[in-house]
């Protein structure tokens, strides 16, 4: 879907981005991860030509983006900024309707779409005629997201979208982000310096340093097969938590059924097999369940397990990874 | 106090026609200039946000323009644009430029970078970003700039009357030169009110919310245009010749009022400052001007004085006036000062003034050259028999006379001298004399009569047609009232006069003011 080839950007003698190449598949969520100054934001901004590269090529849907006018290109790409960049002189409704206005949609279509998005983002209609400065940070960020999604672009670029939010608000928005079906249809490139966020939201992570991609792979790849010591050290902190986030239920071998019998009155929840182990822990901790029914749609089977059984399967999987 | 207010009110009622015209002219002038300043300043301000390299020079030049004294700027405009509305508007708009350019620049560069980036990233073109994002968000700051510019322009527009562009300055400067408080206030109060009202109205616009601001952005230029057009309503009539009179001349019985009542002269008249009046006549911007008969510029610009055949301009023969006490203290003083009596006639004085005013020679040099040429000069004796204090008013002729007297005193006696030049106008000079701050200064008979003694109009009428009767009257009255003695006249008569370009006057065969009237009526 998006193909980046030997992309470079030099500011004077500084090579901010140095001949990087990567690919993002359709509906995939790619994270550009790294410390500040590693070139991740510059890379992102070259994709919608906010920054013109010094060298290299970018294709979206096999079309060279440098052969289109920047305005046309940008109208087809959603963009979410860290500080939301909402227009302070526009109401919420007007802010969301900026791109439809540029694309000259008729009024009805715009209104319908704005209302639909507001509902999906759990904001009531009362907010339509409110100015951004009257909203909380989380609400502003949701409007920023709505504005980027309004014309249903195939590609969404997000520059540290949750960076300015407090932890509580951030995890709430993370949850909404993962649940929003509109986003599942998008190809997303997101910049962040937050490793936890990268592991939670990314299908695919490019870890960058000094303008180069150090490693490009799934969260599990980075965690269990680090390419070099830089990657290893980068992920060292909170490693266990990352492991919980990197490993998905359907990667585990099905645990052997223990001897414990199902007692009466036990609480059982259903869970999809393609979620991370982290969500499993959340179910046990916050919902107080005793057992989970794992529904594996891909293999068309269902199995159940309790906390101990799942933990032992998790450690078994980990062991295998390190022995490989 | 009550009486004062009433008379001011009466004055304003009496002059309501003029007051209305001047106020409309003032508003018009302000807004024509402001409109053009916005038209230039706004795009220029936007331009320098795009080409940052230019921001330094552009803001620098605008700042320098702001520091040029207003009168000097008006003066610079005359050779380029003549007199009247054009140079006044250009000068005013130059003053209004800086706040508009600077606030446009500050306002636009102050727009949140994230908002601009979002606008770009959503696919807005440069123009869309300018009109939909940058300008609306910068509008409050730009507005503040326009507000500042408006108040500045209302203030500076009073100076427009210096170069015949009208406005409330006509009353203000007329009142100052005539020492007429009511006239000053009749101009100053409306001018101040205009500034306050416009500032208030603009501040209201300022506070409107952003939605309404959009309509304001459209309405404001229209409003400016309408207000601007006010300027062109008056000044509709014209005559064959154009006159330019000083504000002082406009308001005096022995000036324009006399021309109208005694001669019945009807001529299109502009009010103008005397500093630029002569040049404007020379450059054919004006045909008839009011001036002083010994002014150096008469010679410099090849002008000719029209004969006052009905004697409406009282004689202004110059003579030193001295405190009687000083004459006693310095026994030789009277004899020395009278050395100059009858030595300088009109054309000699004009020539001396020409040297200082036009050739820019120092008054001391002109004084010495004159004394040497007339074989009166003696080197200073550097004596120490006391110090004679000489006063002078604040213009070239008085400086020359003070220098001549100083050199005579030092050369012929053992007295030393100190000169207090630049004692403002008549009132300041005369007060200095009566309060024993100076011993003498050169005064004019007409001034002594009309400005200091101020007798009844009947007495004035009976005296002013004869130079000797005027001199005798002031001499007698000054001695009686102030114990001040008028010594012998120096010889020249520096009276008001109407003048024209020599060539034109000759061509039209105009020698007297009556000739001028006949030509105009034909």
CATH topology of the largest domain in chain A, anyone? Rossmann fold
The N- to C-terminal Cα distance of chain B equals 49 Å
Give the neighbour order of strands across the main sheet of chain B: 2-1-3-10-4
Number of helices of chain B: 25
Number of strands of chain B: 10
Q: Structural class of the secondary elements of chain B?
A: alpha/beta
Q: Using DSSP, what is the number of strands of chain A?
A: 13
Number of domains of chain A: 2
- Unreliable stretches of chain A (pLDDT < 50, length at least 5) are none
Supply Rg of chain A: 22 Å
Rough outline of chain B: elongated
Summarize the main sheet of chain A: 6 strands, mixed
Mean pLDDT of chain B: 86
Assign a percent range to the helix content of chain B: 55-70%
Walkthrough of the structure:
The complex is a heterodimer of chains A (324) and B (522). By secondary structure, chain A is of the alpha/beta class. Chain A has two domains: 2-246, P-loop containing nucleotide triphosphate hydrolases (Rossmann fold); 249-323, no CATH class. Chain A is 39% helix and 24% strand. In chain A, strands 6-7-8-3-9-10 form a six-stranded mixed β-sheet, sandwiched between helices. A four-stranded antiparallel β-sheet of chain A has the order 2-1-4-5, covered by helices on one side. Chain A has a three-stranded mixed β-sheet with strand order 11-12-13. In chain A, helix 9 (195-201) packs parallel to helix 12 (239-246). Chain A is globular, with a radius of gyration of 22 Å. Chain B is an alpha/beta fold and 522 residues long. Chain B folds into three domains: 2-232, MetI-like fold; 242-313 and 498-521, D-Maltodextrin-Binding Protein, domain 2, CATH 3.40.190.120; 318-493, Roll (Dipeptide-binding Protein, domain 3), CATH 3.10.105.10. Chain B has helices at residues 2-14, 16-50, 55-67, 70-81, 85-109, 113-121, 126-156, 169-178, 181-207, 210-229, 247-250, 253-263, 274-282, 296-300, 324-329, 333-337, 346-358, 363-373, 396-412, 426-434, 445-453, 457-463, 467-482, 502-507, 513-521, and strands at residues 242-245, 268-271, 288-292, 303-305, 318-323, 387-391, 416-420, 440-444, 484-486, 496-501. In chain B, helix 19 links the parallel strand 6 and strand 7. Chain B is elongated. Classes of the chains: A alpha/beta (324), B alpha/beta (522). The interface between A and B is medium-sized, with 25 and 17 residues.
